# Entry
Amino acid sequence: MNHSTEVFTLSAGPTMATHRTLAALGQPIMYHYDPVFLETFGRTQRKAAEVFKTKNDMLLMQGEAIVALEGAARSLTKPGMKVLNLVQGVFGKGMGYWLESFGAELHEIEVAYNDAVSPEAVEKYLQENPGIGLITMVHSETPSGTLTDCAAIGPIAKRYGALTLVDAVSSIGGLEFETDEWQLDIVVTGAQKCLAGPPGIGMVSVSPAAWEQIESNPNSPRASYVSLLDWKEKWLEGGAFPFTPSVSDVHGLESVLDQVLEEGLDNAIVRHTNAASATRAGAQAMGLELWAASESIAANCVTSVRVPGDLEHLDIRAHVRAKYGVMLSSGQGAGNLMRLAHMGPSANAMYPIVGLTALGQGLRDLGAQVDLGAGIEAAMSVIAQNN
Amino acid sequence: MNHSTEVFTLSAGPTMATHRTLAALGQPIMYHYDPVFLETFGRTQRKAAEVFKTKNDMLLMQGEAIVALEGAARSLTKPGMKVLNLVQGVFGKGMGYWLESFGAELHEIEVAYNDAVSPEAVEKYLQENPGIGLITMVHSETPSGTLTDCAAIGPIAKRYGALTLVDAVSSIGGLEFETDEWQLDIVVTGAQKCLAGPPGIGMVSVSPAAWEQIESNPNSPRASYVSLLDWKEKWLEGGAFPFTPSVSDVHGLESVLDQVLEEGLDNAIVRHTNAASATRAGAQAMGLELWAASESIAANCVTSVRVPGDLEHLDIRAHVRAKYGVMLSSGQGAGNLMRLAHMGPSANAMYPIVGLTALGQGLRDLGAQVDLGAGIEAAMSVIAQNN
Amino acid sequence: MNHSTEVFTLSAGPTMATHRTLAALGQPIMYHYDPVFLETFGRTQRKAAEVFKTKNDMLLMQGEAIVALEGAARSLTKPGMKVLNLVQGVFGKGMGYWLESFGAELHEIEVAYNDAVSPEAVEKYLQENPGIGLITMVHSETPSGTLTDCAAIGPIAKRYGALTLVDAVSSIGGLEFETDEWQLDIVVTGAQKCLAGPPGIGMVSVSPAAWEQIESNPNSPRASYVSLLDWKEKWLEGGAFPFTPSVSDVHGLESVLDQVLEEGLDNAIVRHTNAASATRAGAQAMGLELWAASESIAANCVTSVRVPGDLEHLDIRAHVRAKYGVMLSSGQGAGNLMRLAHMGPSANAMYPIVGLTALGQGLRDLGAQVDLGAGIEAAMSVIAQNN
Amino acid sequence: MNHSTEVFTLSAGPTMATHRTLAALGQPIMYHYDPVFLETFGRTQRKAAEVFKTKNDMLLMQGEAIVALEGAARSLTKPGMKVLNLVQGVFGKGMGYWLESFGAELHEIEVAYNDAVSPEAVEKYLQENPGIGLITMVHSETPSGTLTDCAAIGPIAKRYGALTLVDAVSSIGGLEFETDEWQLDIVVTGAQKCLAGPPGIGMVSVSPAAWEQIESNPNSPRASYVSLLDWKEKWLEGGAFPFTPSVSDVHGLESVLDQVLEEGLDNAIVRHTNAASATRAGAQAMGLELWAASESIAANCVTSVRVPGDLEHLDIRAHVRAKYGVMLSSGQGAGNLMRLAHMGPSANAMYPIVGLTALGQGLRDLGAQVDLGAGIEAAMSVIAQNN
# Structure
């Protein structure tokens, strides 16, 4: 199997891109100071801000979204400052290691990796621990498929005088997200999840309060690939690139932003919701158990199911890919689970059917009891209602 | 719905192309006398002959395959000659109208459009009607999804001194086809069916005996778009194009020939067979009836099912496309039937599942009784065994 | 040399396509009855009519433009009718052979292949030869690079009651052309010349008077690949395709029509004019002689120059391609001449410089006296004035 | 002007990509743990090593090449170590600022930005200043178009026990470069210069001695976007990506490596040499002065010329782009100069002519005295000899 029509990429990012996105990535490469590219870059920034629903500054950082997360965390963390890190999965955990190594006094609220930190717990912690300057959280924990309630936590943070840094890598473009309405200071996303774009570019929005903190932080990276300040001082204020931007990735990014804006963000969110509903209904009707402790904290960009019996997630992933040409994601550190993503194009009508059928039959091939027919009936019933 | 990842094209041609094919169609357009294009054109002819399994001359004719069929039929038909036309579907029927208008004395063996003319019937007819100079037949009647046994009829024709003209438009590249082994004189195919290429180019192989007939026929088109002789005299013998060839379509065609040759024709045939088997098993388990009178004459490139109850095929096609983003084919003159194609990439593992699920649920939406779960179980069982 | 950036295609069609056109050709292939494609096809027809500047019916015929020319000539020619064919080059000459073979009583005005038939000569002929039912002419004789004055001849034909059939294959999209204003009945063009599209699709506009003639002509092709009537009766009147259209070519065609309409037809015409002016100035300053008898009849889509000394055009074409990676056109039957085309993208600022430099140095390599520096100075002087 | 065929990108990177490269960038996006992508990534690493001519470890770092330069410089610099930085241009100067900020004891040999640090000067410095642990240099200073003699300096460094870190961003793939033969420890390049690929990916080769230094350096970045160690420990040794790689950029990178390896590195080097020779000859014959102090230190990837009279480089760049559709580079900090690049496809026959003509006429438009004709004559004379 080696051509794309033979593989269904239903993984949790990078995910399959539309043909339009691929065509955009293959556009002629221009000089970065070509007047056409300068316009393109600025226009793409503005479209990204529209998708973030923010009036804050928007930076397009060259690299996988983690470059922007690292840059933001380094830039915000003053030595010795109190930072509250919310942990409900692998990415939240990793942020804690970073914060400590950047010199923060680390505070954490940690729950099981199939659960979510509640806004109430956050508020209680802030009451009991005055002086927290920054709260870090992951909106959608991709490896577990769970959500954090940023809509509630953002305003709480503001009330207690803390800045917020949100990893929204796998949510923006597919899940509801309101940067300004939720009062979030720094928000980071990537192109390769719900936007279904290339993995080589990150986006980060920065509020005036966050800039103030960054500029007053002696540890903020400068003259560095991970520097937010370089982009602000050279590009936003001076019109010069700190280094050559990735022309192709900007083309790809503009295209996926165009696509979601043309579809309408609200429509895209409904589409992701429907795909997740169908998948959850199908998986449960097949006899599989959802990973998330409750449906209310299950993210609509990726459905995680517990691996049944004594099977191993990596074996299942390899078997389904090899035998049925369907690329799913496995647990990636969060547990023995399998993930069917609903991101961009894969959050469309028939993809949940493809994913459920391949997973169900694959599990059966490996010895599990699966009621495939019932699963497809249940999923199609949801799809028929919603489409 | 307007981007490709939102539509599954499971129609009976044009069918979905691989990304590699699309990239080939988008290659830079060269001048037709550029030395690189001259090499490309010759190489593509040779690859087409390899896929036809023939040592006969190969012409690449500029237009949908029907341009080659018209050219071949006009070129072979001398005024007043006896031609036996085998009719088991729409395309066979149409050939008869042509033959008469071109001046032939028309003989026909016609069966119902869900049946096939048997080799025995052909032999009997030839015994009883001496002097038949040409037999015309359609290997795979796409609108009904049925096969003609060209492997048997070719040698019979030779024994009775008749030339053969075979419409193999929807079979070559996906079904077993042996031009020379089966002793066929003129064979025509297109790129947009099992080869999953662009619809703008036809291929035609011509045996020495056929050329002799064509050259001695005063009615053979010359200086015409449908002329086979122009291509022979100008291009094959003189290295000059009779008119500008479609550079892009040749690029697309070479790519699909490469793809099937790299995969191996035998492997491609097995793949089409497996997709058809899964689809037939699934459709029947859902409670649907196959259109073909028997499985032995069902073509592996497209599965036709009888429309249940008093539903109408065009309504079903429109509903399934609008609601589930799956483009199926309907009857196209052969009857009240729906068709799920297995052509090129759509003859891969999970596409039969997509087609069956969308069709099954669509029929149910419109009021039919369909056991969707049983259908998917049956189809996946076949796929699990064969993959 | 094997990748496109190593070859400058400055030939007289097919010519280099823009990246946008190539991307359009590589769009996903849809089923021809997919609702999205049905809309695309109709929209493309309307855009073609806009480029033709006509309210007449527009047909998109599947194949190189010559399929439409053949179809139009066959459809209009009643047995024994008097047809006046204007000959000033290879394509005009070929039309005469066709007309005779289709049963016309052939009348011709023929001039040398570097000259043009004047409107006065046509009017005089019509006065002296009453009963001419059709006048056939070639707007731009690509192999010689000369123009016919259709703007004047169209109204003359109307006054004498004759229909007109115009081969505008290499002019529409780059040269001034007014189908309705000039009162032309049937006009044919292709995509691969000034529109810089794929060579696999023709466009033809048909006036009501032409349809009347076609419908009353017993020889009009029907049920044929070259039939105009099939497209009228099945597609224009019935919404059904007479056969599968070339989905990819329609995508490519719509894109090139979009491009020229977005640029503005008038702007495109100015661009072609400027490129031709620069090239003519450069060629003459180099010491080369223009092929056209006077500049007033030189077509702005292709500049022909007389081959100097005893050199041979085919040798020059091969040498320039092999040594400098520039693909020019040679004489193609019209004489010992070399052609630098200005078609679509090649009618842009620096391409005339590339063509002139490669041709000039190539001629010099082969022994001719060429003042290369003076040629570039002269051409750039024109470009600097016009840009 | 907005489509690619209307702009000649002759800038000093990003430069124009071949159509094949663009097609590779537009290939379907796969999951990074798809078995096909895992193979692709490993294969691309090996091809990069082949182009570097090294048996050292090869890392593909996600971002513009500067991410790899920063990572390498941080990783090699132990606090207080003596580093000798060679400065002959903007990038060399910047490295010095970095080294100091990373805690090195900075030593520099600096010459004018149109000159080159000689191997003799390096050797003398090392003799006089024992204990230098690292020498940093820029093989090709893109903003000035000058070369450093790494072939000589590499072995000198080894003799004095110093590691070497070489910025070869704009040379590999177009200029002679022998990582192992020249005994270089860390070499960094990007894809967007002589390889004419996307700007989003860096490559870095690391010798065993360099790894030893990095592993023993407490300041080596870990768990960071700029970390070399992360890639070594997770990917090279563990088969797991430290973060999601840029699938599209890897596709684009493999393609450009394939292209240069198929052409042959030696052939590519000759091609760049010839383009530079033609350009230098043309510029001088026009009356322009080369920026480089002597031809022997002029880099063959970009020719810099001094701006004549009192003109300003940025004005010239803007004028030539706006009026002639040619994108050149200007000085970028190195001085009042204009640059015509020869990188990848632009190092082909006719591009120097395009660049020289547009620059020459542009300068003339702005008031300079330029003998355009003589320049083209001189350049074509070199091209005619070499092709």
Remarks:
- Residues 19-262 of chain C form a domain with the Aspartate Aminotransferase; domain 2 fold (CATH 3.40.640.10).
- Residues 265-286 of chain C form the longest helix (22 residues).
- Chain C has 13 helices and 13 strands.
- The two ends of chain C are 32 Å apart (CA to CA).
